[in-house]
# Entry
Amino acid sequence: MALRLLLAALLSISFVLPLRAQVESREAIALRNQILEVQHELDQLRQQMQAGGGNNPGSALGGNYGQAAPLGNAASGDLVATLLQEVNSLQDQIRTLRGQMDDLTNKTDTQLADLGKKIDDLQFQFQLMQGKGSGPVAFPVPSSPTRPTQHAAPTATAPPPPEVLLHQGEMALARSDYAAALSAAETVLKTDPRSPRAYDAQFLAARALFGEKQFTRAALAYDDAYGRAPAGSLAQDSLLGLARSLVAINQKPAACGALSKLHQQFPTLRSDIAPAATSLAHQAGCG
# Structure
């Protein structure tokens, strides 16, 4: 009877642990392995007792039931006591692991809340700098230098297609001509803000602003790029760029929030994103 109760307790622990502690962690995996070892020992003991003579505990130790019964009872009692101690120890470890998981969850929630507040603050500050009280952020397109002419100004021509502008912007970005890259991106956003290419244009604008060291505007642009397609092909890049921009303006808690959001939404990061995210988390002092 005691063995059945003990086995039931172990089974309940083995089901609770994956739900609350997430077996992906090293601590949870080690704890699960210990539980499986104890379960295996119990199964072996039960099989030996059944094979040796029903409910007689001495049958687990040999063939002469009458002579070995006292020794078998003592050995079985000692084994059960040892297993009970192991179960109690594992339960203590589960409680400790649950507390660590709760602390980590609370810390992540705090970082995400700080990230949202910081983005709102940056948005408001930029609107004030632009002389606006509300409304979406609009990145001004640099004006082209004017040339004196003796004739009437030519009629305006239609801009190139978005694909051409984005290609020109990427080429300008590659040669560190950030102003030209930003101009190309903003032309796409201005002429066709709802097209699928506007997503690429917003990400291009964010990188150009970061290259110009306009980190506050870059953070807003990266956040906008992520908001356009949270599950898009550039979502990981946008969250990483947002965190990098926030670190550049010394908003490290908000940067940690962006990195937490990155890991939450994408548990398996791209191979080119993972090392950059780890380095940035170290730089920001994320726990």
